[in-house]
Write a structure and sequence with these properties.
- The protein is an all-alpha fold.
- It has one domain.
- Helices cover 82% and strands 0% of the residues.
- The longest helix is centred in the C-terminal third of the chain and has 27 residues.
- It starts with a helix and ends with a helix.
Amino acid sequence: MGVGMALTTLHHALIIRAIAAPAIFAAVPFVYFRYFRLWSPLRTAGAFLVVVIAMDLFVVALLIERSFKMFASVLGTWLPFVLIFVSTWWTGSVVRHTFDTRL
């Protein structure tokens, strides 16, 4: 967000974050489910989301911004949270199904 806000407007940076977050969280679980598969897609999506929320809460809101104002933004916070959860769950489901059928 810091780089995005330095290069463009806040609104555009939030849109970029809303698009980039689920894309990144599709790549990470792809690797996880391809090689490890310790948890179900639903449990993994929940765990990934908890980590993201904790980082936003403790690092971004408390340490960097010193405000919880960011949590008032649907585009800036809540939409990326939902998209991160959905993209992690969907990627895990697809990868597990694809590689389980080949066994």
